[in-house]
Amino acid sequence: MSEPQFNKITLIGIGLIGSSLARVIQREGLAKHVTIATRSPETLKRAEELQLGHAYTTDSAEAVRDADLVIISVPVGSSGAVARQIAGSLKAGAIVTDVGSTKASVIEQMQPELPDTVHFIPGHPIAGTEYSGPDAGFADLFINRWCILTPLPDTDKAALDKLSAFWEACGSRLDHMEPQHHDLVLAIVSHLPHLIAYNIVGTASDLERVTKSEVIKYSASGFRDFTRLAASDPTMWRDVCLHNKDAILEMLGRFSEDLASLQRSIRWGDGDALYDLFSRTRDVRRGIIDAGQEVDAPDFGRQAAVKEPVKS
Ligand code: NAP
Q: Cα separation of 215 and 191, whole Å?
């Protein structure tokens, strides 16, 4: 356990990401005090039952008083509203960050609301599962996963270093990016795959000549992996689509063109084109395994989330 990096950390939103942060903060002793705020009394009660922090409230403004670090882990469409709620209660010099899956839109929503006296440093841990809510979190979620920070042009270097040290203590590897570039990269590596999964599972469930029970019964052959992605939180993904519209539409356009070309190869019986594509894509997977971002195991290296309550 390390020295506490912060006196008080406030977590706003205590779902998969917020509760994973709460667990790792406690395990690593990164704060002397953790206050948890969320919108609904039910979620707050569950966070308290799981002993995820020291104080609990549905009043975000109250929660951030005296906080040195505020981490907002709510669906990206709610980040502006949360910034508005907390703006008047933030301590001068506090670091305010978020974990949202889109960055340009979050900055656009939050920056105008926050006072100049705080350090706003947007971020995005590239770590997650298809589960949501306070029970879904686990302390190891961020280990060896990238966390992308998108500092603003006038971001204070000392605050950036402090936030970077925090994420490193959570197990993350740090990278910096321009917000627009982040959104483009994430559109291809995360947003498009989720949309393809939502679409293919939607198509299968609409089929008339193949029954739903056959789809479920024979799902081991590829379809099952799409259903994992397609089980992701609908609110989160609705917001991602609405808040990274341009980059997602650009990637969908490229995807549709490439799909048409694949269709043509099949129609013309162009085995060489199919073989070349399938070989290239196999190399991409090998590269991901070699980079340590995946293991070569039948379950894709995903272990069941640890759902034990943490001790306060
Ligand atoms: P989640 O499990 O669904 O939890 C969302 C939390 O936000 C809940 O505690 C919810 O509270 C709270 N919330 C929603 N609207 C709110 C509001 N207006 N004010 C205060 N609290 C509010 O979601 P998550 O997976 O942790 O995702 C949180 C953020 O992390 C999202 O921006 C997402 O894009 C990003 N992210 C997700 C993943 C992933 O794989 N899931 C990965 C990286 C980043 P109630 O239950 O009380 O309504």
A: 24
Closest by CA to 199, choosing from 229, 219, 221, 220, is: 229
Domains of the chain: 6-177 (3.40.50.720), 181-290 (1.10.3660.10)
- For residue 207, the model assigns a pLDDT of 83
Residue stretches of the chain with pLDDT short of 70: 1-2, 296-312
**Amino acid at site 173:** R
Residue ranges around ligand 1 (CB below 6 Å)? 12-18, 38-40, 43, 73-76, 78, 81-82, 99-101, 124-125, 128, 132-133, 233, 236, 240
Q: What is d(CA 151, CA 288) in angstroms, rounded to the nearest whole number?
A: 27
pTM of the shown model: 0.92
